[in-house]
Amino acid sequence: DKNFNRLIISFARKDDFLSDGSYFDRYFNINSRYDSKSMWFLLSLDETIPKNIDKNIVVFGKENIKKKYSFIYLLKVLLFNIKASKGSLIKIFHLSLRSSHFSTIVSKSVTEVVKSKNFKTILMAYEAQPFQNTIFKEIKNLDNNIKLVGYLCSTLSLPSYSFYRCGAPDLLLVHSSAQIYHLEKYLNWPSDRLRLVPSLRHSYTNNTRYNNSLVLPTDLPSNDLLIKKFELFLNCTEKKSLKPLSVRNHPLMDNSKAHKQFINNLNNLISRYSDRFYKNAKKDISIFFGGTSTTLEALESGFNVIHICTDAVLESFSDVFWPPIKVQQIDENIFKYSLISYGECINYSNEDNKNKFDKYYTL
C-alpha cells in the first residue's frame, strides 16, 4: 500500500505489540492505528518479531536470533570493508565498528521502504545515535523534499551525542527548554531547527513512580563502587530520616544476573542500616544509580534526588548544561539535586496525548 504520507521510525519491545496486531509506542505514547496515513518502521530491542502485525508496521531485527555471532559473516564484512576503503586502515577500522555496520544495514532497509512509498515526512524517536543520522542523511540523498523531523526522546546529563552534525533532522522537537538552551549554546544547533513542544513521553499521571525508590540504569559498569557509595550515603544519613526504599529495576534488565546481584546487595545494605528508615519520615527521596535521565522526572515531581555515579564527569548533571538544577556535591561520586524552577527540564502539558500529537508532532 503506497497510501502513506508519513514514516515514523521508533523502537519496540515484545510488550509493545498488542494482540490485535497493532503497536503502542512508548516514546510518542500513541497507537499505530491512530493515524491511518502513517507507516511505522520499528527497531526491535529484544529481537522479538511478532507473527501478527498490521500492514502499516515493519519490524527490523535479526533473522537468526539463536545464533548470536557468526565468524563467516564477520569475515565477509571485513573483506568488503577492505575493498571499500581502498586499503585505508582508518576507514577499515571505522567501517568495521559495530555502530558503523549497523548504520549501514539499517539505513539501507529504511531507504528501501522510502523508495517504494510517497512519504512527505519522516518522524523519528531521535537519540542522536550514529545510525539515526545515517538514516536521515541517506533519505536526504534520496529525496531532498522529504521533511525530516526528530523528537529528542532521550536525555543525557552530558549531551555530547546531540551535537549538530551531518544527518541532523530538518527540525528537532524538544520537550525541555533547558535542552534547547544547551543545544544552541554548546552543541551548535541553529535556533530555527529547534522547537519546544510538550512532552509526549512523560506525563503527570506517572509522576510518583520514582518516589522513595532506588532506581537502576541499563548498565552497571562498576557494581562494587556503586554499592560502596550507597553504603557511604547511608552511613552519613541521620537515623529515621528516610522513608523505606524499594528497588526499581530497569524494565529491560529483569533477566540480568548482574542486576539481580546488585539488587540483592542493595537490599542487604537496607537491612543493615534499617535504623535510617522510618515510615513517617518527613521527606520523600529518589536515589538514582549510574547514567540515567529519569532523575529529571523525579525532580519535576518535587522529590529530593540523590545521584550516585560511577563516572561523575559523564553521568552527573551540571548546572552548566542544566541551569534549572541546583547541584550539591556530597562526595566524589554522590550528588544531591533540587530544582530552582519547575517546568524547564520537562515541558509537561495537561492536554490529551492525541491532541498533543496532532497539534505539535504532525507536520
Topology:
Elements: E1 6-12, E2 24-25, E3 30-31, E4 38-44, E5 57-60, H1 71-85, H2 89-96, H3 98-115, E6 121-126, H4 130-142, E7 147-152, E8 171-174, H5 177-185, E9 194-196, E10 213-215, H6 223-235, E11 246-248, H7 257-272, E12 285-289, H8 295-300, E13 304-308, H9 312-315, E14 325-331, E15 334-339, H10 353-361
Parallel strand pairs: 1-4, 1-6, 4-5, 6-7, 7-8, 8-9, 10-11, 10-12, 12-13
Antiparallel strand pairs: 2-3, 13-15, 14-15
Helix pairs in contact: 1-2, 3-4, 6-7
Q: What do you see in this structure?
A:
By secondary structure, the protein is of the alpha/beta class. The chain is built from ten helices and 15 strands. The protein has a seven-stranded parallel β-sheet. A six-stranded mixed β-sheet has the order 11-10-12-13-15-14. A two-stranded antiparallel ribbon has the order 2-3. The longest helix has 18 residues. It is globular, with a radius of gyration of 22 Å.
